[in-house]
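quick q for whoever's on today - can somebody do inverse folding on this one?? i tried earlier but teh output was garbage lol. tokens:
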């Protein structure tokens, strides 16, 4: 994992193809990073962390393909780059995905079921279950046409659940949330990406 220089701000990128990238840039800056958009493989150079935002995973997958970013992001993450995928971003990081599957990056050992809460409950806010990993207690989670995370492998640590279902999970340097931590004032997920 890249070492963040003492006193230096971590450098973070946000994939800028589509979706909630502006709010992530702002959250990363508030969490103490220098943040910039990523649209080309050269933009990954020198980054400590990368966010794949929420939005529409079908559109983002097409953009990743068109821009030739699948392999560079995989190589960058395999070299230890810290990466966070939120909602559609979590779908893209998964081992595989269900319900109109898209090509995923396969960087975390779980399956994402797209739109798994169904059209009746497009968006909702919920407080996470009481049993949470230290540092993530009582998080208010905002879900927008969220996926569910299924069949996590043995190396995946589930950090938070809502109604018993995983909503925040980590495998080494890869973090996924099915909710939108960039909306609201709680910076714990962005801080975990940058500093944990
Ligand atoms: N439903 C979207 C998808 O499947 C994800 C929604 C979101 O990122 N808020 O790609």
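ok took a stab at it. sequence:
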């Amino acid at each position: 994992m890249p070492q963040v220089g003492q006193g230096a701000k971590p450098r973070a990128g946000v994939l800028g193809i589509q979706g909630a990238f502006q709010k992530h840039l702002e959250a990363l800056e508030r969490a103490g990073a220098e943040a910039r958009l990523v649209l080309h493989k050269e933009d990954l150079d020198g980054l400590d962390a990368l966010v794949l935002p929420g939005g529409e995973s079908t559109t983002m997958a097409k953009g990743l393909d068109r821009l030739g970013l699948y392999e560079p992001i995989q190589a960058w993450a395999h070299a230890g780059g810290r990466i966070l995928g939120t909602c559609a971003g979590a779908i893209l990081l998964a081992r595989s995905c269900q319900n109109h599957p898209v090509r995923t990056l396969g960087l975390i050992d779980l399956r994402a079921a797209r739109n798994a809460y169904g059209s009746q409950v497009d968006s909702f806010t919920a407080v996470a279950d009481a049993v949470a990993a230290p540092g993530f207690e009582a998080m208010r989670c905002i879900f927008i046409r969220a996926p569910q995370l299924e069949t996590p492998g043995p190396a995946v640590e589930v950090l938070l659940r809502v109604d018993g279902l995983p909503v925040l999970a980590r495998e080494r340097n890869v973090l996924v949330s099915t909710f939108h931590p960039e909306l609201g004032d709680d910076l714990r997920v962005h801080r975990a990406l940058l500093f944990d």
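fwiw The mean pLDDT is 95. also Helices lie at 21-30, 57-66, 70-78, 88-93, 188-195. so keep that in mind when u check it
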